[in-house]
Specification:
This protein is mainly beta. It has six helices and 36 strands. It has a four-stranded antiparallel β-sheet, with no helix packed on it. Strands 2-3-4-5 form a four-stranded antiparallel β-sheet, with no helix packed on it. A four-stranded antiparallel β-sheet has the order 6-7-8-9, with no helix packed on it. α1 runs antiparallel to α2. The longest helix is centred in the last third of the chain and has 29 residues, at 440-468.
Length: 594
Amino acid sequence: MERSIKGAGEDTKKDSNWINAHLNPIAGLYAFSSGIALVDLNGQGSSNLVVADLGTGLKDMKLKVLKDSSVVQEHSIIDVPTGIVSVYMDLNEPRIPSLVVGSGSSLYVYKNLRPFYKYNLPQLEVNAEEAKLWHQAAEQEIAVDTLQAGLEALNKEGKVLTVQSLDYLEQQDDKSCTQFLNDYGSMSLKRETVVTCLSTLKKSMSEADAISCAVVGTENKEILVVDSEAFTLLKTFSLPSVPCFMSVTGLYDVTFVVYAACRNGRVYLCKKDSAEAKVCFEVSSQIVGFERIHKQVIVAMMNQTLACFSAKGKCLWNVDLPGSVVCTTLMDHKAKGFKAVMVGLDTSKVLVYHNNNIVDTIELQGVPQALCFGKYGVENTSLIAILTTGAIEVLVLKRTVEYADKGINQGPPASQRIKLEIPKKSQLYVDQTVRERNHYRDMFQNFQYDLRQIRLTAAKSYYKSLNLKVTPLSDDPAMPLSLTASIFGIGPRFKMLLNLVNTAAATSVDPKLACRLKLVFRYAESIYDITPRILNLPALVPEQTYNFSVCIDCLEKENPIQDDVTAFVCKAGRSKPVVTAIISMPVAGGNVFA
């Protein structure tokens, strides 16, 4: 049953930018965005929708080809499909692409919609202890309970077991274990990986119908580049986590970059000249959508957030979404050079984001489960949505629609386009220019001489301060102290607060305590009176701040003047102070309460 909404070719709303082309509410499709593709299967310029249908999730998996919104052809798939891509495998005319379906541990290649080749992913190494247990069980050297105990011990240790061992551990009693061992005990152990995501990479040319390679993400935390002509493994990348989304750019024969979003919330960067992946950026929530526009990566997360990152991992913008993200796709309007990200929400809406602005909102007949934008039939701007109810909805963008990115300033602001009024050159300016041109050597030498004099004066002052111990920081590595002082009050009575810190690094062997220290003040007795003048300091523990306060009275109340007060931290038995601080006192403002 196929019907249109309010008649074929009509809009759901009068102000909508989309035309409802087809709707099949009983299509019975179950697929995700990675499992649908728009492919020109006949080489005649008309694209069909190819869906890797999940069936019930356990059986009835099929590869379906749709025209309009009806299934015209289908093929059974052995295992659960995880992705589908179209690749060109040869240079024959007419140019007809082949389909590559990732299912289980294999890649199934369909040419002219017929099974053509099955590529098995490289097998993984079997645990030696596991293989030994199965060999002993097959030779009847150990009993079934011993085999089960050994496999359970390996599983608890975190060893990766084969599917055969995991199935054996699920057996309930000794009879079923014995039957399982008789049926499969003599078979050789195989540990296979599973395809998690799928993409393509142009091999040597960037044309749309150029020969491509298949890029496969696996459950074994690897990315494989497979040649589509000879079906050989070209390149392998190792990742710290399992990849779930991929985006590839470049050419294999020149240079290429693989952006891989993994289950640990990180996006990794894989380049041709490096076998190791580098962390591009990390997000705070699980990634449920992953698209790339030029050198910008847009990720949709489970915390209802859409974020954009640069190729170097810098966050360019971040927006909150009005619902949970269920699927995403890239909108590439090639005729108008417009690219945007389409985000499907659980509110039965699809938001179109260009940069961080919503340029369009599409209302569907249900919650979308998979989205795909591209050429469907002869329409280049079609949006295919598979809903959670199994229905399929096809919408076509109107040719007169022009999306405007409001709120984003393109280029410099208008104030920078205003020309500055540059004054005319005066005679003084001309004379100065002539003088600099004629005496440039002397002016440069004088500048260098003055600069050296400044540096020499600064070095002499610094050397003098080190010898006289008048710096607030100690240069003694055995007793590194830091002294700071602050003055409070407006006079004639002031309060001085001193902060003393032992900056030594304590260890369990040497606590680095600073002991037998005194704080002494030097000042003009005819101007100031400090109480107390000498402070006996306690043992200073490293990395602790000690606060001390003293009262300072200005004796010249009628004619207040300004002078310096010097604070010394001295140690018994040493002729020079450990640290010195010179405090410039403020001018006393007199007794305001008199």
